[in-house]
Amino acid sequence: MSFRLKAITREEHLAFVTARPSVSHMQVPAWGDVKPDWRAESLGWFDDEDRLVGVGLVLFRPLPKLRRFLAYLPEGPVIEWDAPDLHRWLDPMLVHLKAQGAFSVKMGPPVVARRWSAEAVKAAIADPRARRLRDAEATAHEPRAFDVADRLRQMGWQQTEPGSEDGFAAGQPRYVFQVPFSGRSLEDIQRGLNQQWRRNIKKSEKAGVKVVRGGYEDLPAFYDLYVETAERDRFIPRPQAYFQRMWTALTAEDPDRMRLYLAHHEGEVLAAATMLTVGEHVWYSYGASTHRKREVQPNNAIQWRMMCDAHELGASVYDFRGITDTLEESNHLLGLLRFKVGSGGQAVEYLGEWDFPLNKFLHKALDLYMSRR
Asked: Per its UniProt record, what Gene3D superfamilies does this chain match (predicted)?
């Protein structure tokens, strides 16, 4: 028998998430409020004894002029992914979403496939034959991930291609960089930083860089730096209203769900970053900095302060989020990868995102539209 699935309240959803050590920040109820162009619904899986055993935040995006929707569960749902009877979880979800008018379902199983140590990533970058991280020998493989992938294919799910030339997919990143905190003291974590990081942190302290926590009123200062960063790193910036909405929605759900940090030097804000927390998982979410006074190393200063605070919160992992998969020197994102590698963590590959076309014609039309954007 399949599990029974139905819409649940935000309170039920949040209580389930709160009881778990690690759930994506995109699978908390408040994330639906961050995305006003999507209609959000909390889903719950119930067993034979009517116990809530799984949840999912699904976002519905309407097709123009049609009452048909793309249903998206970013980095979710929160279910037992290594269950041998995975169809018991996913089949009722597809039935429910089809009844809601979904023509296609996209999800991102929070399942790790491979890991590369910082040393392995550095070796791959230095190897002129290595074009992509995915082609380099991994430090660790997670066998259950490949079992999950096989089961999904057998059920008719289709794996989304890894992404564009820079390694970032249109949805959520498949490759991220994480620093394990579990069982490690702050001194252990500091010893794991490379020499450049430790030197830069000391340099910022000596120069008088002060990292402080900000509030809603400091978002404009963050945003000014963010726009400058977008121009420098060649990406399209989100509007300021997005971050204001993000702050309001997430901190209303939990005062510590989102934090803002600013690095000050001689009365000037040189860098700023947002940090998200769900359970024992902490993410460095958005970062921004100016090209001015880079010699006082505000970026290392702000990251170290965030890592210290994450450790104090009891984090088991500090997540730098997405990294490029492309290792060629011409890749403009390689510098950012090198910066994250200096933290002494590990590159992590997830299973990526998967699609289930409920209406193959509309799904193909959406694919064609997305490829031409």
From this structure: 3.40.630.30
Residue type, 246: M
Band (165; pLDDT cuts 50, 70, 90)? very low
Same domain, 96 and 188: no
Question: What range does the domain containing 200 cover?
Answer: 112-140+169-350
**Amino acid present at 277:** T
Q: Contact at 8 Å (CB) between 211 and 261?
A: yes
- Given a contact cutoff of 8 angstroms between Cβ atoms, the answer to whether 358 and 103 are in contact is yes
User: The domain that contains 98 carries what CATH number?
Assistant: 3.40.630.30
Structure tokens at 189: 């974590």
Between CA 172 and CA 177 the distance in angstroms is 13
pLDDT tens for residues 255-308?
A: 999 999 999 999 999 999 999 999 999 999 999 999 999 899 999 999 999 999
The reply to whether 182 falls in a domain is: yes
Judgement on whether residues 238 and 89 belong to the same structural domain of the protein: no
**Contact yes or no for 258/242 (Cβ under 8 A):** no
Tell me, yes or no, whether 201 lies in a domain: yes
Both 345 and 361 in one domain: the answer is no
Return d(Cα 167, Cα 132) in angstroms, integer: 9
Peptide bond into 77 cis (omega under 30): yes
Q: Would you say residue 152 lies in a domain?
A: no
- Same domain for 125 and 199, yes or no, is yes
Reported pTM: 0.93
Cα separation, 190 vs 186, in Å, equals: 6
307 and 199 in one domain?
yes
pLDDT tens digits for 227-236?
999 999 889 9
Is residue 367 within a helix (H) or strand (E), and if so which, with residue range? helix 360-371
Same domain assignment for residues 29 and 131: no
Considering the domain architecture, whether residues 213 and 67 belong to the same structural domain is answered as no
Q: Which segments within the chain are labelled E, that is strand? A: 4-7, 39-46, 52-62, 69-73, 102-107, 112-117, 140-141, 158-159, 175-180, 210-214, 258-265, 268-278, 281-289, 317-322, 346-350, 354-357
H helix intervals, 76-192: 87-99, 118-126, 143-154, 186-192
**How far, in whole angstroms, is CA 306 from its chain's centroid?**
17
Task: Find out whether 300 and 200 touch, Cβ atoms under 8 Å.
Answer: yes
Overall number of domains in the chain = 2
